UniProtKB/TrEMBL annotation:
It holds the Pfam family GFO_IDH_MocA. It comes from Costertonia aggregata. Residues 155-216 form the GFO/IDH/MocA-like oxidoreductase domain. GO terms for molecular function: nucleotide binding. It comes from the Bacteria. This is Gfo/Idh/MocA family oxidoreductase.
Length: 319
């Protein structure tokens, strides 16, 4: 089992602590929190070992799980990596692109592995259809959330939209050609609503909308490709898959057949992929353990996390 220590015991940090404590792939040695009062309170409530010195925790661990505010991601990560420790780091990978690129250098220099916490990659609705998303040419995403002061220290692009940016980059095998975006600040000092249009070299276009001041929550993505439409509801964990194939010469009474202007007939049919219930956060943590043990590339590598941050910052710059 890999010895793991957690940096940060806030809302998400406590979730990580609980899951790592339950995991059969890790041995939770304890956690560090910069707020000593909070650290001692969490230790007293849950029984985890509290380290009052970050260096002591890093020294004792094989893997360091970084669940601190984004501004401190780089500092925590480089401390761990320079000690030869593997890192799991919450999204966004770092506060700046320069910091993320420095982590890529440290990853090679110290021969360690890193994974970024883009948890939607492990959403069971997405994993159920990801292999069917093949060369999509138009993608539309909506990620809307009710207002929550937690996370408003960064633009909504880094808080919410970056989930969809990462998911899109994982299925579109092409470089980005152009980005156009707009953002509006309503309550926060940084944009609370944003829309971005990403054009890829291969012709694919992605239209992304994110808001953290909506009246209801929504996390939906729609993928349009030749002969298929795939809808993923990340919130409800549901999918819709609508496909087309050449219509039979003698269609049945209930077959749905469309004819285009050229006279070609296509049959529409529906697929219902099986969605396996899971805990996405536990899955991302445990697949990282597998990557370390088997010496394979993590599902969401530091390089991929850096690319998602690069696109997110380009969107912010285009406001």
């Amino acid at each position: 089992m890999l010895k793991v220590g957690v940096l940060g015991a806030g809302h998400l940090g406590k979730i990580h602590l609980r899951l790592l404590n339950e995991s059969l792939k890790y041995e939770l040695i304890g956690f560090y929190d910069a707020d000593e009062i909070n650290g001692k309170d969490v230790a007293a409530e849950f029984g985890y070992t509290y380290y009052d010195n970050i260096n002591d925790l890093i020294h004792a661990a094989d893997v360091v799980d970084i669940v601190t505010p984004t501004l401190s991601h780089f500092d925590c990560a480089q401390k761990a990596m320079k000690k030869g420790k593997h890192i799991f780091i919450e999204k966004p990978i770092t506060n700046t692109l320069e910091e993320a690129e420095e982590l890529l250098i440290l990853e090679k220099e110290y021969n360690v592995k890193g994974q970024v916490g883009h948890v939607e990659r492990f959403n069971p609705a997405f994993t159920a259809v990801k292999n069917q998303i093949d060369n999509p040419m138009f993608i539309e995403t909506h990620r809307l959330a009710e207002f929550n002061p937690r996370g408003t220290d960064v633009p909504v692009v880094l808080d919410l939209m970056i989930h969809d940016i990462d998911a899109i980059l994982s299925v579109v095998n092409s470089d980005v050609k152009q980005i156009n975006a707009s953002g509006v600040s309503v309550i926060s000092k940084s944009p609370d609503i944003a829309n971005a249009r990403i054009e890829f070299v291969n012709g694919c276009v992605a239209n992304l909308t994110a808001s953290r001041i909506s009246l209801k929550n929504m996390r939906k993505s729609r993928f349009f490709q030749q002969d298929a439409y795939i809808s993923v509801d990340f919130l409800e964990k549901k999918v819709e898959v609508v496909k087309m194939k050449d219509a039979p010469t003698d269609p049945g009474e209930f077959d749905m057949v469309l004819q285009n202007a050229e006279g070609e007939k296509k049959q529409i049919y529906f697929e219902n992929p099986k969605i396996e219930a899971n805990n996405a956060i536990l899955d991302e943590l445990e697949t990282f353990a597998d990557a370390i043990q088997n010496d394979t590339e993590p599902v969401v590598s530091l390089k991929q996390g850096t690319q998602a941050l690069r696109i997110a910052l380009q969107i912010i710059d285009s406001f």
